[in-house]
Amino acid sequence: SSLKIGLLPGDGIGHEVIPAAKEAIEALGSSIPKPEFVSLNAGFEYFARKGVALPEETVQILKNECDCALFGAVNSPSRKVTGYSSPIVALRKQLDLYANIRPVVSVAENPEDKPDVDLVVVRENTECLYIKDETTTIGPNGREARATRLITERASRRIGKSAFELALNRPRKSNVLSITDGLFRETVRFVPKSIEPVGKYDEVTIAEQLVDSAVYKLFREPQVFDVMVAPNLYGDIISDAAAALVGSLGLIPSINSGDSFVMGEPVHGSAPDITGKGIANPIASIRSAALMLHTLGYGDAASRIDRAVNQVIREGQYLTPDLGGSAKTDEVTKEILKRI
Ligand code: NAI
Ligand code: MG
């Protein structure tokens, strides 16, 4: 059998880092089913040429043929462009990839040492302010702009379950931090009682924190955090903040996952400031590939990639400029491939 993987580099450095992730998967050899890659269109560059940001063909191939996918990044125009809407937001919706999972882990100097920062942000991926329901009216104070924030019980329950599952399967720390409000908070709290078998999550403890103090604490004491579950917008902010703790956005992977599909995606954007220079850090994409494989049940293959990446970071000789080095994307990738 084979593993069919959709590749959606998108825009900008997506074209430079997704090929690196592909090579890392190929370097695994027979420890995973033979990978078969299919290149798929999506993004602003494609929109500029063809007038559509996410072609229906891409969605159909992902749904009907692929086992999983890797997404690079897309440009979002800063002003509204008629007819354009973000393909990543649409993909999360159409494939129902409701959990955005972002591990943030620092690399300890010695492989035996525990990393300082070792946490995972579990971000709800389908609702909150990101449903983009905005209106303007004229009121006594001039123009009034409003956005609707949608939190549903169903989405809060399933993201809560994802967080509890993760918390159960990680080496233990003392806290699950749950940053929540209203329905989200109640629903996540109720997950242990609402999902069979009752008692499954008994070892997971919950600590609640408001988003502002959580970010403060994240910077002061990152080591206390283990799994952080949050609605979409808070989760976005917390995970970018957490990324700053370990050096560079170019290091942080994520997956968008649902019940039947998983899509790896580096946390960073399309980085127009460095596009075409060959210096984008490929590590976030390579780690996203590992995370994707881990989720599909290929834990050993994923660990091989992660160990190779950590070795290269630790050795410090082949680092891209975002980490203070002078290596090119290709050189870093080559060193990682050797170690896989
Ligand atoms: P960005 O993540 O693209 O870049 C922020 C800074 O980090 C830049 O200085 C960039 O050079 C650097 N950087 C990012 N990834 C890097 C890597 N792999 N290696 C080395 N340096 C790296 O965020 P920015 O500049 O705010 O957004 C640029 C474009 O990307 C915008 O159009 C934005 O809408 C889009 N974007 C897309 C995302 C997605 O597709 N999911 C997520 C975030 C931004
Ligand atoms: Mg973001």
UniProtKB/TrEMBL annotation:
Family to which the UniProt record says this protein belongs: Belongs to the isocitrate and isopropylmalate dehydrogenases family.
One GO molecular-function entry: magnesium ion binding
Any Gene Ontology biological process: tricarboxylic acid cycle
Domain Isopropylmalate dehydrogenase-like: 4-336
One Pfam assignment: Iso_dh
Protein's UniProt keywords contain Magnesium: yes
SUPFAM superfamilies in the record: Isocitrate/Isopropylmalate dehydrogenase-like
Protein name from the UniProt record: Mitochondrial NAD-homo-isocitrate dehydrogenase LysB
PROSITE patterns, per the entry: IDH_IMDH
Keywords for the protein's UniProt record, in alphabetical order: Magnesium
Gene Ontology annotations for the cellular component aspect, listed alphabetically: mitochondrion
Domain of life: Eukaryota
Upper taxonomic lineage: Eukaryota, Fungi, Dikarya, Basidiomycota, Agaricomycotina
